[in-house]
Amino acid sequence: MKEKNPWHTPVTIIITVIGVIAIVALVTVAVLQNMPLLQKYKYGIVLDAGSSHTSLYIYEWPAEKDNNTGRVEQKHSCTVDGPGISSYASAPPKAGESLRACMREAEEWVPKKRHHETPLYLGATAGMRLLDMENKVVSDKVFEAVKGALEKSPFSYQGARLLKGQEEGAFGWVTVNYLDDRLKQGLETTGALDLGGASTQISFVSDNYDGSESPSNSVTFRLYGNDYTLYTHSFLCYGKDQAQRIRLAEHTQSGPKIVADPCSHPGYSETKKYSVLYDSPCVSDRKPQGAPETFDHTGTGNFQECQEVVKKVFNFTKCKYSQCSFNGVFQPILQGPFGAFSAYYFVMDFLNLTDTSITLEDVKEKLKLYCATPWSQIVQQHPKTKPKYLAEYCFSGTYILTLLIDGYNFTSVSYSDIRFIKKIKGSDAGWTLGYMLNLTNMIPAEAPDTPPLPYAGYVSIVTIIAVLIFILFLVSVRPLWPHCSKQQQIV
Ligand SMILES: Nc1ncnc2c1ncn2[C@@H]1O[C@H](COP(=O)(O)OP(=O)(O)OP(=O)(O)O)[C@@H](O)[C@H]1O
Question: Which residues of 445-463 are buried (b: 16+ CB within 10 A; e: fewer)?
Answer without folding.
Answer: eeeeeeeeeeeeebbeebe
